[in-house]
Amino acid sequence: MRGLGYDRYAAAGNDWGSPITVELSKIAPVIGIHLTQLFSLPDGESMSYPPTDQEEPSDLTPADRAALAGLRDVQHTVAAYAHVHEQQLQTLAYALYDSPLALLAWNSQVMGGLDPETLLTHVSIHWLTGTAGSARDHSNIVSWNAYDTGGHYAAHQATDLVVEDLRAFFSRVRGEPGRGSAVPSAAPHDRASHSR
Known about the structure:
Helix content: 40-55%
Largest sheet: 4 strands, mixed
Strand content: 5-15%
Shape: globular
Distance between the termini: 18 Å
């Protein structure tokens, strides 16, 4: 961004872009970051299968129970994706870089919530740019919002809502009057915003 003449800017990320955006905020002069997914797991848990054999705490709220049930579903249905990325990323990278069919198959298993055009757009970007094999701190949260619509790919599933949320957040961190309202919620799995 400095090469483009910007001294300060904002960043937003989803899915793998969320941790990348957090890391960007550590090295770049961003005024704030907006995340539509925050990976925050209970102690001893991971995205990989098998899930922990710990007993479920009895003091969980209904929202926490729903979030834990969502984690269990991920662990049982698509955890292999995260597991392979954690342990054999380079081996996988060769296959994804070598075959557009392998790239499409690998991505379609975890991007099942996307319409075919959006899925093909994601896969095409990785394929045409040659990045299929390489494209892969909560204390300063100033805004936390959860919504009844959208989902893992909120920018595609609830575009207007994400745009309004981005405008409201970045208006606040820039010190301008907000263009929208944000309703705080205790559902941490949906959306978080962070500012410096």
